[in-house]
Amino acid sequence: MGHIVWDWNGTLFDDLDVVVEATNEVFVPYGLPPIDVAYFQSVYTRPIWAIYERMLGRALEDGEWERLDVAYHDSYHRLMERCRLATDARRTIDALADAGHTQSVLSMWRHDRLSVAVHDHGLAAAFRRVDGLRPEQAGGSKAEFMVRHLAALCADPADVVMVGDSIDDAVAAQHAGARAILYAGGMQARTDLDRFGAPVIDRLSDVSVHI
Q1: Which of 13, 57, 91, 137 has the most CB atoms lying inside 10 A of its own CB?
Q2: Contacts of residue 57, Cβ cutoff 8 Å, sequence gap at least 6
Q3: What is the pLDDT of residues 122-132, one digit of tens each?
Q4: Do 163 and 11 meet the contact criterion of CB atoms below 8 Å apart?
Q5: Are 48 and 168 in contact (CB under 8 A)?
Q6: How does DSSP assign 29-84, residue by residue?
Q7: Are the C-beta atoms of residues 129 and 150 closer than 8 Å to each other?
Q8: 23-32, 44-53, 133-142: which has the minimum mean pLDDT?
Q9: How far apart are alpha carbons 121 and 113 in whole angstroms?
Q10: How far is CA 27 from CA 23, 43, 66, 68, in A?
Q11: In this predicted structure, what is the pLDDT of residue 161?
Q12: How far apart (Å, rounded) are the C-alpha atoms in residues 135 and 204?
């Protein structure tokens, strides 16, 4: 059987509405009109600072990204308490485990927060490993982290599928020699996901169709 690497935010964790709300809060001092989910998905990319430049229509000034990032996470961590797992996340994780697949989580969210969230949602025992962004890793790419994640698992990339909601997840999988399945219920618009060429699903339970 194979190994599934899950993205967290926007994939297993249904937080898109809160991400958009936190982003709107950050830009209130700039006088920008509030954005909706469709607009956010249309400008979503990695790195995140590039989203902010798209919204502002200009390059960020020195130190501006750092200030925006702190403000965003302050808002997000306050608002995220109302978020839940994606509708069929738990059922899908259980079904994959029953089918003999191992699973883990790789996220660009802060590792301390991620670990607590995975535990609080009752999923810690489901995953062989949970990796988020640690302080010393700031500035790295998800592609680099994917390679390290698989090495720590002693996993053969040929047996691995990455499931995430953005092209960044597919690029990370490709870089590591793994396959990707993209979920259209998260941060990035389906039209953008379709262009990458990896399978795109509307429900997490459809992962089993493509592995």
Answers
A1: 13
A2: none
A3: 999 999 999 99
A4: yes
A5: no
A6: GGTPPPP-HHHHHHH--SSHHHHHHHHHTSPPPTTHHHHHHHHHHHHHHHHGGG-E
A7: no
A8: 133-142
A9: 12
A10: 7, 15, 14, 8
A11: 98
A12: 30
Among all chains, which residue has been given the structure tokens 């009752």?
122
List, in order of start, the domains of the chain with CATH numbers: 3-14+84-210 (3.40.50.1000), 16-82 (1.10.150)
Q: How far apart are CA 72 and CA 76, in angstroms?
A: 6
Confirm if 149 and 162 have CB atoms less than 8 A apart.
no
**For residue 136, what are its two tokens?**
């010393």
Write out the E strands in 111-174. Answer: 130-133, 160-164
Separation CA 69–CA 142 (nearest Å): 18
Q: Which amino acid is at 108?
A: M
For 85, the token pair is: 């797992």
Q: Map tokens 């301390």 to a residue.
A: 112
138 — pLDDT class (breaks 50, 70, 90): low
Q: What's the average model confidence in pLDDT over 53-60?
A: 96
Q: Does the structure show a pLDDT above 80 at 139?
A: no
pTM of this prediction?
0.94
